[in-house]
Amino acid sequence: MSKGKKILVIEKEEEARELMVMRLESRHHKVIQASSTPLAMRALEREVLDLILLSTDMEPVDGKPLLQVIRSRSHLMAVPIILLAKESNLTELMLGHEKGYDDFIIKPVNPLVLQIRVNLSISKTQERVEANALTHLPGNHAIEKIVSKKIRAGEKFSVLYIDVNHFKSFNDRYGFQKGDDVILQTARLLVATSSAVSSAGECFVGHLGGDDFIVVTPPELEDVFARQFLDDFDSVMPTYYSKEDREAGCIRVENRRGEMENFPLMSCSVAACTNLYKNYSSLREISQDAVEVKSFLKTQPGSHYLQDRRFMPIQKIDEAVHILAPEIKASARRHKKSRVDPLGQVLLSAGLINESQLSEALKKHFETGQRLGQTLIGMNLVPSHEVGKMLEQKLKLPYFRLKDWSPSPELRELFTGDLIARHRVMPVEVTEGAVKLAMCDPFDIRTLDMIERITGLKPIPCLALEDEFEVFLEKNFPSQPVDIN
Predict the structure, then answer these.
(1) CATH 3.30.70.270, domain 140-338, yes or no
(2) 6-128 is classed in which CATH architecture?
(3) Main-chain dihedrals φ then ψ at residue 222, nearest 5 degrees
C-alpha cells in the first residue's frame, strides 16, 4: 500500500482521537483532526481526502446524520468511511450495512486493528472506485451512473460540461506541475460553487479527465451555478500567469506547426443541456448535444455559458447566449447566499486593495476554504478592523471588535466554553430582556433560536471576525478546541 494518505479523524473524545492520530502519523499518513461537527464540515469542504474515520457520536447537520451529509457530497462519494462505534451499537451497525459506510471499528480502538482496517479500506477503494487521481472527483463511470439514475427516475436535471480554453498553451508554457495546479483549482472552484448554491448537496461535480469537468444540477440552479463559477474562474486564473503575461493578455507559445503564436489567457466554456425540453435516454445523447454547443462557445473569446435551447422557442438571441458581462451578474448575486466575495469589491472600491491583490486573495480563498476577509487579513493586505468596518457597512450589522476585549465573569458564565467555541458566538452585553452577541456568522438562525431558548433573552447579533474570534478563544477559553484553519 502507498504511503502518505490524507485521513480525517472525526472524534469527540480527545484521548481516543490522539491515540488514533499518533498511530496513523507513525505510518506516515497526514492526519487532520475534528473534535466537533462544525470543524468536521470545514475540513470536509477544504481537503482532498483518502479516508474518513467517523465517530457515531457526532452531532447531526440540519437534522441529518453526519454520515448521510458526507455521502451527499459528490467530491466525497469515493472516499471510504470507517465508523468508530461502541459495542452497544453493534446490532444497529450490522442491520444498517447499506447506509453509506465501508467498515467499522469498535471503541475503544485497538491500534493494530486500526492500522489493518485503514490499509484494507484504502486498498479496496482504490481497486473498485473510479475517481480522478489528481482531483479525487468521481470519474466517467460514476457520472454515467448518476445521470442514468435520474433518467430512470424521471427527474428533471441539467448537465453542465465545463472545458478550460487554452489550457494546452498554458501547459506548454508553464509546465505540467503548474497545469495540475490549474486543474486542481478548477475542481476547487466547482466544489465551492456547488456548496455555495446548494447546501443540500443537490449539485454533483465530476471529472471527465484533463481540463474537462461535468456538473449535474437541478434546472433551477443551472444558471446561477454557471455564472458564479465563471465569475470566480475569471477572477482567479490570471494569478497563475506571470505579471508580464497578465499585462500582455496573452502568451507566446510554439504551435503544432512549430511556429510561434500568441494564445489568449485561459478562459472557460460552460455548455449546458437539460431534459426540461427534450427527453434524453442516455448520457451519450446529452454529450452529443453538448459537444455542438461547446464547439460554438470555443469560437468566442473569453468565458461563456450557453444553454442548448434548440428544443425551446427562443424569443431573443441574448436569451440563448449568456456572455458574462457586469450588467447581467445581478441574477447570480441574488443566489449567492453564503458568498462573501463581494467584500473584495467593497475593499477595492475603497482603495484598500488593488485588482492584483484581490485576485491573489481569491486564489488563496478557494485553496484554503477560508473566508475572503480572513484571507486578506492573513496576507497582511488589510487590517482586521478595516475588514470589520467594511463588512459592517455591507451587511448592515454592527461590527464588534473582540481584539483586546475581555469578558466580565458574568458574561463568561452565561454560556459554556464548548458552546462558545462550537458555534463561534460570545455574549458581549446583557441588557433588560436582551443579550448582544458577537458572532462569526450573525445570520445563523438556528444558533440565535437556541440561545433565546437557553437564556430567555432576545439575541441581538453583531459581526465578529473569524481571526479575532480565534485569538479571543485562545486567550479566554484555552481548553476549548480551536480551528486553526
Answers:
(1) yes
(2) 3-Layer(aba) Sandwich (3.40)
(3) -55, -55
In this predicted model, what pLDDT tens digit does every residue of 409-452 receive, in sequence order?
999 888 888 889 888 899 999 998 999 999 988 888 888 888 98
The string of pLDDT tens digits covering residues 22-40 is: 999 998 899 999 999 999 9
Query: 409-476: what fold?
Result: GMP Synthetase; Chain A, domain 3 (3.30.300)
Lookup: cell for 257: 506547426
Q: Is 345 left (phi over 0), alpha (psi -120 to 50) or beta?
A: alpha
Q: What pLDDT is attached to residue 46?
A: 81
Every domain of the chain and the residues it spans: 6-128, 140-338, 340-387, 409-476
Q: How many CA within 13 A on the CB side of residue 277? A: 12
Task: Give 117's contacts (C-beta < 8 A, 6+ positions apart).
Answer: 82, 103, 105
Of residues 3, 93, 44, 80, the one with CA closest to residue 195:
44
SS3 171: helix
Are 194 and 203 contacting, i.e. CB atoms less than 8 angstroms apart? yes
